[in-house]
Prior knowledge:
This protein is α+β, with helices and mostly antiparallel strands. About 45% of the residues lie in helices and about 10% in strands.
Amino acid sequence: MKNPDLQEKLIRQDPIEIIEEEALPFGSIKLASDWEQLFSSLMEGETIILLDGKTKAMIVDTKGGEKRSIEEPSSQVVVRGPRDGFTESIRTNTSLVRRRIKDPNLWVESMKIGKVTNTDVAMMYIKGIANDKIVKEARKRLEQINIDSILESGYIEQLIEDQTFTSFPTLYHTERPDAVAGNLLEGRIAIFVDGTPFVLLAPAVFIQFFQSVEDYYARFDIATAIRFLRILIFFISLIAPAAYIAATTFHQEMIPTQLLIAVAAQREAVPFPAFVEAMIMEITFEILREAGVRMPRAVGSAISIVGALVIGQAAVQAGIVSPAMTIVVAMTAIASFATPSFAMAIAARLVRFIFMIGAAAFGFYGIILGIIMLTIHLCGLRSFGVPYMMPFAPLSLVNNEDTLIRAPWWALKKRPPLISSENKVREGKDQKPQPPSDRGMMNLSNEKGDQHE
């Protein structure tokens, strides 16, 4: 028996609207009129509904499949802070950020990149805080990508970066939602790629790679001390073997006499110069490190630790290397592991060999020349048009509250320049804690009243 109300509604209203409003209890329903979009949606696991006599089809979001649950990030572990990390699902990742920033100005622009893979890519920023020129430039670079496949965010990073011939990363990647939220509030742009837990942040500056989200959860004096320690660690991982080579080869007068005698006694049985000795140890340790990464997790750590101990001890007893060189290489390796950003640590590992060659050729003069050339190179880098060494080059004394030092939260009144737009103020006035001047106890009067009674 036919329903007269339904027949009358079909005459007055579009059948697609009736199905969308009354028949399908789904939140995401799209209309499409070209076959390419229909086939693409069908391959992604969505349901296609075709109506006779209609030129448009309905795409119903019914994607399924197994997804990894939210876990603690493995590459950026903190003592104090949230324990959730990004997964391989782009929807899960964007929702983790929206949970922290509940603002309608948090915009997400979605697109598909990759002619064969049709990978979902999303660009997220806060309208009114992010610089419109940087947003426009990022959108332009993403739309210009013409490649068959995008399997990880590293593809995107290499296709949109400003500088190609450099070892230093010009885009920051993280798998922590709180790190993405904090950078969005500073005016940066986040790029999500479906299928990877690593989110890209642009623009990036050099000092950003030595900062950790935990710095903002701890007291400012503790965070500042740890940041200075990270900078020291970076320089140790960069020039420690080169300094040993220069001191033992060219500048023995700079070493204290007792230490020089001990080092000379150790090197008496070593047949190689300090440069060859350092190269042997560095290459051996890089092999052990790579073997530890590629092996299964349960075996990898054992191989790297036991291999380093056994090979190091055997090399010293065989007279191939000296104990002092073993200590220097071990210190350098530990320092490279302590760098917060893995991409910056890899860059230091590569540049370290250049410093070693310069030290073997010219001593400390070669190291100083290498530092000057490295500084010039870093000052010439750009990240979406923003100077890589900002705010040191160009120098801005006003905007150094969150660089080498981390000022208290009540002093971080403005966002970084050249990154945020006109909305640069992030907190109100008089945020500094102001306890009573008399320093009296709050409950002292009550206790006196109770005693009187």
